[in-house]
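Dear U.,

Please find below the material for section 3 of the report. The protein was modelled together with adenosine-5'-triphosphate; I have listed the sequence and SMILES used, followed by the predicted complex structure.
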Amino acid sequence: MAQSRRLAKLGSYLRPHWQETALGIIALLSVNGLGVYIPLLIRSGVDTLSTTFSLDQVLRYVIIIISLSSAMWMMRMASRIWIFGVGRQVEFELKQRIFQHLLKLEPAYFASNTPGDLISRATSDVENVRRLVGFAVLSLANTFFAYTLTLPVMLSISADLTLASLAVYPFMFLLVHLFSNRLRQQQAAVQEQLSDMSQLIQEDISGISLIKIYAQEENERRAFQKKNQALLTANLTLAQTRNTLFPLIGGLANISSLIIIWLGTMRISAGTLAVGDFLALLIYVERLVFPTALLGFTITAYQRGEVSIDRLESIFSVTPKIQDPHDAINLPISTVKGEITAKNLCYTYPGANTPALDNLNFSISPGEVVAIVGAIGSGKSTLANALPRLLDIAPGQLFLDGLDITKIVLNDLRGAIAYVPQDSFLFSTTIKNNIRYGDPVSDQENVETAARLAQIESEVDNFPQKYETIVGERGITLSGGQRQRTALARAMLIDAPVLILDDALSSVDNQTATQILNNLSGGTQQKTVLFITHQLSAAATADKIIVLNQGKIVQIGKHTELIEQQGLYRKLWSQHQVEELLS
Ligand SMILES: Nc1ncnc2c1ncn2[C@@H]1O[C@H](COP(=O)(O)OP(=O)(O)OP(=O)(O)O)[C@@H](O)[C@H]1O
């Protein structure tokens, strides 16, 4: 990103907090104003007292200087509170923005952007921007005021001494300039390595059982060591650059103090410089040493923040592909009948060579129970994901109640569909909250009814905490079948006119599956059900079966019709019967 655009972004982060930022900067200005005034007071005190010494005078100077120094200290505190506070606010808002933005993006985005990388951006990159907005802004403003206010006064006291003491500064700025590009690149490398490592940790923790089953601990350990080593190398390279630059800056800044002491004392002994002027100059040079020595840290914080701005903006710049069109049509759930039509429906995954859905045409009447069968990878889940627009389907191909799904308000479309995906994901909360996820205010009775329809009720009753049992990370871990039926109960709780089950009964035994299907047909007279399954005995009970092969519909019909035809369904059915006999 170009420097000007980065600055514009930085400005946009600060704009909502301009008042606190302005107050902080005014406070810094006052700090530096007092920082210039106090040495002048000391000079006048020294000059006065060296001619007419009196204890009263000393006391007066001491009280004034202590009061002004206290005011300066309070102003410095206030500047830190305001500016660091803005940093924290910006951090909060960025995290909020990232999360909200991610929620708007389609699942395909998360297939190509790993959770580890996104987590690292939402944490350590946001942290870097906080330091840029807080520490770097404060430090840069402070350095700027220190120079612009102090230098004119120094020059007015002794131009040649001031210029002599500043002789080292061009070298200092040259150094900073030479190092800044290198620092930015090395900082970016550290951030990348950190993301890589977060991703590996995240993936390994999710796949821990697999690692153990395949005895890959050693390989994973080595892979981690490699990433960790790369991070260490990147951090050390960066530290090396910083450790070269910072002491060089600090050393050069100290040289300017030495120049003042050396030349100043010579002038005092020659009688061409007053002691008060010498003291004031020395204090000023010392005052400049700190912000100058800090310049290295400030620049690092600034550049680190810039790299992170780029990394965050690359998330914000992704526009959600699936969103409401400007002329979106409302479809209140109570009016939905559940008629589904596909006209030449095609879908190709980004980067794939062949379509996952290839010219599908079908029509499903309201209340129909339709089974979708076919070999692995034939496009069944893709079809299930297309209807609630989890995929970016082109307009004019898929219709609900005759309305193009891409024209329907997304929330209305999704509200009309209850969906049980292939992986029965549960949140780490109570069973009750998992079941009523789609309707969080639903009462206990509804939750229990849904659990009964999904055949999970008796098992939940056996848990000590029943529906309050926490599942997942810090609670009971459910079996695959229990997870599936909890996910099924979640879909059953919503009174949606369309129900999509993507292989949602694969982990339950035949008897339970049949019972659930009976509940489904009994309780869903008016629901349109799309039912993906590998269990052909379940498919046989459907009103209609759609047979997919390599993304194409190869057969549509009732079970009794399809087994009469030569074709894929008859082949699958024969295989199924052999499996039934063997089991
Ligand atoms: N995110 C993706 N990116 C690219 N290709 C994908 C993606 N998801 C699925 N595919 C491909 O699309 C085709 C259809 O996949 P889909 O998951 O719809 O099959 P399926 O019939 O549901 O299979 P299964 O019975 O195993 O669930 C497959 O060739 C698959 O490799």
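For the text of the report, you could mention the following: The two ends are 62 Å apart (CA to CA).

Regards,
Y.
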